[in-house]
Design a protein that fits this description.
Low-confidence stretches: none
Number of strands: 8
Order of helices and strands: HHHHEEEEEEHEEHHH
Shape: globular
Largest sheet: 6 strands, mixed
Oligomer: single chain
Structural class: alpha+beta
């Protein structure tokens, strides 16, 4: 494994994501998901789903996942590395009856079969469902190996790095193109400070994603990304909260990841 190989693989994932944009199907109070089957097939062909099979592949996960974050790809593509949707407080994302959810606990992580799943409204299009498990199913004790969990964590951090970077680019473009007091908005010191703070976080997340992060990285990555997104919203202003402007997609997704990561950490620590 070399940096050139990681760069080449990341480039192939970037091309796949660019060729299959993920639509925003969400509206307030809706229950929907953003899975793109054609994108899934291309990711499989590119080798994305194979990254949790070998420790030697872990360095590829974070940088490649950043491309998924930039493209706001469905979080299901991260969960596939884990072997199923995270299950927290009776809720799963994307998983349906007959599929497997992943239940974290202080004693380890195991896959549990879902016997029923009812859609519930959520603040992002991640197919959130209230799930019931089937305790008598022989798959109930199927353990998730540490390699799969490590790959999922690296992918989550990388995804956050990518969406933070993309949101920052939106804010930069807005600040350079919008005038205030006869000069670009980006010339204001207060705006420069917010952009610099968001850029610092984006860079730190990218470095963290490339360093095969451990479970403790989830405690930093989610809040850090949300903080950077707040700075971007301050720069962009009210338009950033409209459904027509893409910035709200990044902030919704960052908040969603933070909430699920917090639930994962809580269950793992007891």
């Amino acid at each position: 494994m070399t940096s050139a190989e990681i760069t080449a693989f990341t480039g192939s994932i970037r091309s796949v994501v660019a060729g299959h944009p993920t639509p925003d199907r969400w509206s307030p109070g809706s229950a929907c998901d953003d899975v793109v089957p054609a994108l899934q097939r291309q990711l499989a062909a590119a080798g994305w789903y194979d990254l949790a099979q070998s420790a030697h592949a872990l360095p590829f996960v974070g940088p490649a996942a950043a491309e998924l974050g930039r493209g706001l790809v469905a979080l299901r593509e991260l969960d596939t590395l884990l072997g199923g949707s995270p299950l927290a407080s009776g809720l799963t994302r994307y998983a349906t009856a007959g599929e497997l959810a992943v239940l974290p606990s202080p004693g380890g992580v195991r896959r549990v079969p879902i016997s029923a799943a009812d859609c519930v409204p959520y603040g992002d299009c991640i197919g959130t469902r209230r799930a019931s498990t089937a305790p008598g199913d022989p798959r109930q004790q199927e353990q998730v190996g540490p390699l799969a969990e490590r790959a999922w964590i690296a992918a989550t951090v990388g995804y956050l790095a990518g969406l933070t970077s993309a949101a920052l680019q939106l804010a930069l473009t807005h600040a350079n193109n919008r005038e205030a007091f006869g000069a670009p908005l980006s010339s204001l010191v207060s705006v420069q400070q917010r952009l610099a703070g968001a850029a610092l976080i984006a860079d730190s997340l990218s470095l963290l994603a490339g360093a095969e992060p451990g479970a403790d990285a989830l405690s930093y990555a989610g809040p850090a990304s949300c903080a950077a997104l707040r700075d971007c919203h301050q720069v962009v202003g009210a338009i950033g909260f409209t459904l027509e402007y893409p910035l709200q997609r990044y902030s919704r997704r960052a908040r969603t990841i933070q909430l699920w990561a917090d639930a994962w950490i809580s269950c793992r620590c007891g």
